[in-house]
């Protein structure tokens, strides 16, 4: 009887380890895809909803960005972007 219980415990532990490994692999795949998707979003020009104008005398330029990302990563932009403007100049 003890042998059967021991075998059942071993099978249960093996199944649990297999399930844990499957979950870890799924998490890695989802994370990899999420990183790829966000990278494409950040590097592409689609859906950028805000412009930063840099007024350099010799070479002024515009940087198109995502408002939500700026506001989530910077307290300055978080406060500044609460207004409804579509651009800011420096």
UniProtKB/TrEMBL annotation:
It comes from the Eukaryota. Residues 1-26 are annotated as: Disordered. Residues 48-90 form the BTB domain. It holds the Pfam family BTB. Residues 1-18 have a biased composition (Low complexity). InterPro entries: BTB/POZ_dom (IPR000210), SKP1/BTB/POZ_sf (IPR011333). PROSITE patterns: BTB (PS50097). This is Speckle-type poz protein. It comes from Anaeramoeba ignava. The lineage of its organism: Eukaryota, Metamonada, Anaeramoebidae, Anaeramoeba.
């Amino acid at each position: 009887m003890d042998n059967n219980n021991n075998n059942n415990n071993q099978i249960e532990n093996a199944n649990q380890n297999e399930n844990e490994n499957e979950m870890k692999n799924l998490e890695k795949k989802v994370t990899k895809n999420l990183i790829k998707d966000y990278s494409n979003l950040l590097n592409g020009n689609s859906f950028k909803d805000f412009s930063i104008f840099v007024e350099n005398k010799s070479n002024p330029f515009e940087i198109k960005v995502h408002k939500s990302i700026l506001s989530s990563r910077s307290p300055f932009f978080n406060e500044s972007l609460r207004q409804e403007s579509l651009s800011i100049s420096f």
